[in-house]
Amino acid sequence: MTRRARGARTDPDPLLRLARMHGIQLSYTRVGGRRVTATRQALLAALHALGAPVEAMGDVPDALRERSQELSRSVVEPVTLAWDGRLPDAVEVRLPEGLARGPVEVSLEVEDGEVMRWA
Length: 119
Fold this sequence. Notes:
This protein is an alpha+beta fold. The protein folds into two domains: 61 residues, no CATH class; 41 residues, no CATH class. The longest helix is centred in the middle third of the chain and has 13 residues.
């Protein structure tokens, strides 16, 4: 089971879902406020560069299934970025159904060896 932030959305488009599952930003705002959305070709190229087994749209369903299985076996992402020494506001934790109902204790070892704990 994945605990998801309230209001988080699941994209119905398999390519967009796969891109999000790999941490790819789907759009950005340029200087001047203009919104730029990644093309499908750019998303496929980014996914391929990240090691996803996709070269064409027909590869997306299998890659999505593979990524879902991969994430279900992993409690957290192997790397989480922190800018200027500040921890991120949230880290997604995936737990088996039975463990997701009770309190969870989390510890994080940062690059310099410091260990932080939350309950």
